[in-house]
Write a structure and sequence with these properties.
3 helices
Length: 83
């Protein structure tokens, strides 16, 4: 449990709060949109999935095919002219 709670960040806490707010709004006033949005936000925060997760929107680096190591951004690119 301690390891699980150590991975919580401020954006994830805000997402949880927004999810709880919309779920509370659904239970007090109704509305299927509040239920759908609140459930989605709460589930993403609780399970650490989606764009608010630690690597949800990150891209994978390009790898060298020969030795399977990441290619640095400063790598020189070779171009071949096609005529």
């Amino acid at each position: 449990m301690k390891e699980y709670l150590s991975k919580w960040t401020i954006p994830r806490g805000i997402q949880l709060a927004v999810g709880i707010f919309f779920l509370w709004d659904y239970f007090t006033d109704g509305g299927s949109l509040a239920l759908a949005f609140g459930t989605m936000m709460f589930a993403q925060a609780a399970l650490n999935i989606g764009c608010f997760s630690s690597q949800g929107c990150s891209t994978n680096p390009y790898y060298d095919e020969k030795d399977n190591t990441p290619i640095p951004d400063e790598a020189e690119v070779e171009y071949e002219e096609i005529t």
